[in-house]
Each structure stands twice: as structure tokens, then as C-alpha cells.
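Design a sequence for this backbone.
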């Protein structure tokens, strides 16, 4: 039996939590990296066309909501191409805090959905896709780790540069 078939809802939810909040094998988790980041630091970018930590946080929230949507069978998320990146500039600290709150909420909802999935559904094909729910969740874990690495690099660069938006 392939190793992926032994991943239960509890194990997958635990891995989502580790990659999001802490205890991940790959290094700092998403929220560990965003702790202490304020609005100006979150908007910093090394050059005009790169993403900021704020954009990455919004992007992660979007795809966590989408994964939850697919698990519970909810309608597609609204928005056109590129809507998963959100606004490039936020106008206040409150706007940054709202992005962080949306990220926390999206993670919590996905984790809850994963814990409620019957084990037999994990190998179900997703509508319009050739991957399973288990594959969706494994991809979500990889996506979170990838962007956590980007956030880690951006934060180091931003702090070294004084954290002023460019």
C-alpha cells in the first residue's frame, strides 16, 4: 500500500497546522514568519514587480479557502484571473491585520473541514480534476511550504533594508 494512503484526516490536519502555525520539518511556519510583521514591512518588496508578504498572505488565504470549498462542495470562489493575489497596496495597518485575520480564518476552516472528511472520501476524484481530495491536501501543504520560504526570504531582505515599502 503506498504511503500516501495511510494519511488520515487527523494526520493531514496536523500537517496543515504544523506548516501554518509551527513545528514543521521544513522550518518556520507561515504564522511564525508573519508574527511581528506590521503593515509597512508586509508591503515591502525588493523590486516593483515582486510580491510582498502581504500579497503572499492574501494568496495563501485565497487557496486555503479554495481547498476548503472543494472539500465541502461549495460553489467556486468569485473573482477573475489574478484575484487570488488581491490588492497590491494596503492603505492602513487595519488592512494588513484584516489580511492576517482572513488567513487565520481560511486555515481554521480548512483544518475543520479536513477533520470532518470521512476517510473513504480522501481518494475520491475532485470534480473537474484528475487529483483526489488527498492530492489536493498534499498540494496545499506543498503550496504553503513554498510560500513560507518566500515569506522567510522577503522578511530577511525587508528587515535588512529597513522595512520601508518601495
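Sequence:
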Amino acid at each position: 500500500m503506498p504511503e500516501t494512503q495511510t494519511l488520515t484526516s487527523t494526520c493531514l490536519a496536523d500537517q496543515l497546522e504544523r506548516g501554518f502555525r509551527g513545528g514543521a520539518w521544513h522550518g518556520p511556519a507561515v504564522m511564525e514568519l508573519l508574527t511581528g510583521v506590521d503593515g509597512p514591512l508586509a508591503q515591502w518588496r525588493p523590486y516593483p514587480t515582486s510580491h510582498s508578504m502581504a500579497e503572499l498572505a492574501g494568496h495563501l488565504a485565497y487557496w486555503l479557502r479554495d481547498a476548503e470549498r472543494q472539500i465541502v462542495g461549495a460553489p467556486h470562489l468569485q473573482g477573475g484571473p489574478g484575484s487570488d493575489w488581491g490588492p497590491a497596496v494596503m492603505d492602513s495597518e487595519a488592512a494588513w491585520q484584516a489580511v492576517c485575520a482572513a488567513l487565520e480564518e481560511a486555515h481554521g476552516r480548512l483544518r475543520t473541514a479536513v477533520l470532518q472528511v470521512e476517510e473513504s472520501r480522501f481518494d475520491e476524484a475532485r470534480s473537474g480534476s484528475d487529483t483526489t481530495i488527498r492530492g489536493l491536501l498534499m498540494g496545499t501543504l506543498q503550496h504553503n511550504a513554498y510560500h513560507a520560504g518566500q515569506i522567510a526570504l522577503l522578511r530577511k531582505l525587508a528587515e535588512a533594508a529597513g522595512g520601508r515599502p518601495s
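Residues 10-160 form a domain with the Four Helix Bundle (Hemerythrin (Met), subunit A) fold (CATH 1.20.120.450).
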